[in-house]
Amino acid sequence: MASETKGRVLIVAGSDSGGGAGIQADLKTVTALGGFAMTAVTAVTVQNTLGVTDVHPIPLALVRAQIAAVTADLGADAWKTGMLGTIEAVESVAAAIDAHAAGLPVVVDPVMVAKGGHRLLDEEAVAAVRVLMTPRAALMTPNAPEAASLVGFPVEDAAAQERAGDALLRLGAKAVLVKGGHIAGPVVRDLLVTPDQSHWFESPRQHTRATHGTGCTLASAVAIGLAQGLGLAAATDRARRYVAEAIRLAPGFGAGHGPLAHGWTAKPFD
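Below the sequence we write its predicted structure tokens.
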């Protein structure tokens, strides 16, 4: 029965022509983990593993129309937001969450800068993300530089991860995953904080250039877990294990930051 359907994720994010991050990574991830992904594209980027060379924002009326069309017919069990780009886009998506996502978990990945350094969120839009998206997040998934931009102090060690997580909870997030991939050390430590507890996830650092789209992939992997009814900690744990294996099995494409093996869960088709 349709009312019993689980695993539908609406992704509101930008497109990556190289296929390693953004909407493309989100679609692959949700599919690989047994869900059904739908999209509202916020921007079209020109990029490959070497970086982003152009960004074309989608008109906001069209972004809103995509969201309305999907939610009116297909429905959703969770949302995931990624690249929003501008203050106006943040405002539109926040309003769309209020209009269409009542009671649904929303995973907010506050995408700010591409792996190659190109800004994907206007500097003046950071405050809009802080004020409008944080309170609407069932889970916010900033990396250390993104967390620093949102909370206003450096996030360079475990203590700062804890402070940043607490600060984002005070801003209204229901839970925060402060990722530690940008913090030096042989072990990657991600901190999941809620108003009731905190939990550290640890995994050995993989020394590889195949790191394009890891943030998008992790956030979407958590979103599909929540859409399937997993608890937050279980969804996060499965998402981290999925990403780690996708990095390990990366195909080695491109001359820069290469894509992950999103499809490693798939069985051969006879």
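The radius of gyration is 17 Å.
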